[in-house]
Amino acid sequence: MAKMNMLQAINQALTLEMERNDRMLVFGEDVGHFGGVFRATSGLQDKFGKDRCFNTPLTEQGIAGFANGLASNGMTPVAEIQFADYIFPAFDQIVNEAAKFRFRSGNQFNVGGLTIRTPYGGGIAGGHYHSQSPEAYFTQVAGLKVVVPRNAYQAKGLLLASIRDNNPVVFFEPKRLYRASVNDVPEEDYEIPLGQAEVIQDGTDVTVLAWGAQVEVVQKACDMAKEAGISCELIDLRTLAPWDVEAVAKSVIKTGRLVINHEAPLTGGFAGEIAATIQQECFLYLESPIMRVCGLDTPYPLVHEKEYMPDAFKTFEAIKASVNY
Amino acid sequence: MSQSNFSEAVIHRATFIERDSLTIPILKILQADGTTYEDAVLPQIDQQLSQRIFDACIFTRVLDERMLAAQRQGRISFYMTCTGEEAAVLGSVAALDDGDVILAQYREHAALRYRGFSTQQYMDQLFSNEQDLGKGRQMPIHYGINALNFQTISSPLATQIPQASGVGYSLKLQQKPNVAICYFGEGAASEGDFHAGLNMASVHKVPVIFFCRNNGYAISTPTEEQYAGNGIASRGLGYGMHTIRVDGNDMLAVLAATQQARAYAVKHSAPVLIEAMTYRLGAHSSSDDPSGYRSKDEEAKWQQHDPVKRFKLWLIKEGWTTEADEQALYSKYRDEVLAAVKVAEKVPSPKIDLLIEDVYDQPPPRLKQQLEELKQHIAKYPKAYPKTAGRL
Fold this sequence. Notes:
The structure holds two protein chains of two kinds. In chain A, the strands form three sheets. Chain A has a seven-stranded mixed beta sheet with strand order 3-2-4-5-7-6-12, with helices on both faces. In chain A, strands 9-11-10-13-14 form a five-stranded mixed beta sheet, sandwiched between helices. Chain A is of the alpha/beta class. In chain A, α7 (about 150-165) links the parallel β6 (about 145) and β7. In chain A, α3 packs parallel to α4. Chain A has helices at about 5-20, 45-50, 60-70, 90-95, 100-105, 135-140, 150-165, 215-225, 245-255, 270-280, 305-310, 310-325; strands at about 1-5, 25-30, 55, 75-80, 115-120, 145, 170-175, 180-185, 200, 205-210, 230-235, 240, 260-265, 290-295. By secondary structure, chain B is α/β, with parallel strands linked by helices. Chain B folds into two domains: about 20-345, Rossmann fold; about 350-390, no CATH class. Chain B is built from 14 helices and nine strands. In chain B, the strands form two sheets. Chain B has a seven-stranded parallel beta sheet with strand order 1-8-9-5-4-2-3, sandwiched between helices. In chain B, β6 and β7 form a beta hairpin. In chain B, α1 runs antiparallel to α11, α2 runs parallel beside α9 and α5 (about 160-175) runs parallel beside α6 (about 190-205). The longest helix of chain B has 26 residues, at about 45-70. Chain B is globular. The N and C termini of chain B lie far apart (about 65 Å). Chains A and B meet through α3, α4 and α5 of A and α5 and α6 of B. Chain B: It comes from Shewanella avicenniae. Chain B: Belongs to the BCKDHA family.
């Protein structure tokens, strides 16, 4: 066990798997010698050579297309898109190609070995092109798995599971926690299973659901609620596609209430999908309408970032509104 | 190392390089009458290879003629022909090793035949029956077969181009003496994926052959409205790539160019671009009507350059085939295709249970639940779902 931040944990996961699997490659913009703009891939080129860890030209669609080709021919590519905001040029290769490779070919070919890592989210004064949370776009794509870790420990275990999963995975890394999240992280190899939510804190009055960097935010709101005499059950979804309906429904049946928090804009956000499913699964158990605490339906702003964010105070208010409905 | 990869010639008066400064010769070996140019250097070809190519030519002609008719009769929903481009496709695939991976666009079924795809396998795909390797999930002509190293065709244009760079890089790292070959039209070269794929291959020194069938039209858009500049070959040079332009209706020229391209790509672990100048004699697809955008005269002019006929004349001169042999091949394949159609039409559609397979490696619980709900619904309204109701 060692104290590690999220970048170190990610770096260790990549290192461990590259040692184990000589078909694994790591590439993207600036990921080679420099180790990526956030330094997640530091030292990998020195250790594994330029053939297996390299810079690519500035072409997100090229990175994703190249990765698809590699994976379709038996390799394990882990491609980095420098910021999730820049994943859109690669959208076609991810949505139309990676996600559908196995299905459209009748499993003659698949890109199961593919993992795309990308830093997402706000809170770093990055303005709209360095702050977006585009996870919902990918949750509608059958064939992709979408994974978001909340801290260093989770990042290592979930990333190892993602790379070894036999399906293409888009792995969103909460960049504002890259250095801020420091945990005890085992040095050895471990996996956290995909598709399973984690109940972080038991409670009886309301279920509070989040993923990635927002888990820390809603934790604060749950602490505030505790002061106000409200018992929150806190769940980290961890995998958004396919998501753990059972765990969330089980909790909501117990508490009768649900508050969902995410950074992305409200409209069309993944909270909408969760709300619709949970009201169907738990209709007779619900004591109040499912609440959503999300970003506004605007591009992510620079100056008003603090106001825009679905922060602990907004979440606390939603928790109280849910309980007092 | 920075800024070292450009050539330096100094001038002291602003002088621009014009389009005409770049002359790209076109490789021609066979003449219209089936004789070869006097100074032509022939590819490596013998009677056996010639026969295999010619056989696939005639099969492809028959397949295209019969299946276009089948589409017109409403027996299949869609079709695309290779007509006019057989030399581009077969001359190139015949230069490859069976371990070379083919990433096709949608007009390269002749290559699949050359690799050994059976007549029945074509029909099963075209009729989307339960024998279709693609399990009835894509439109007709989206073939793919792992055993023949022919990746399944995807409809979005040009997506196979950067993928081919990735496949080529995997062959390099797996230390296989093979290449990836990527087919596309000059229209697809307008997509961002073309730039992305060529640039990636060049920078990362990937053994891949980018094979452009410059066939004159992207659906209805002629080349003048598709790109400016000196064809697609000039782009290859821009990417620092070994490049050649060939007469795409000349089987021997395409074969010669591709044999050398392959040898170069393997030896130097580097990409090559081949631009084959050809003409799409047929419509873009069965949904297209070229009379709306090109003249009969233009089509008649290109009929004179029929690549199959030109190759046949050469074979006859070599004493390797006769008109009678050709007729015998035609009739053999007509019978074979018709028989396969009859078989394929009687094979049922893939079972509804297949719908949720291959989305992920294992169907997730929600998907299983959705299938169960669907089956219960079909059972309740069997007349509304005649294809599946009787086979739940």
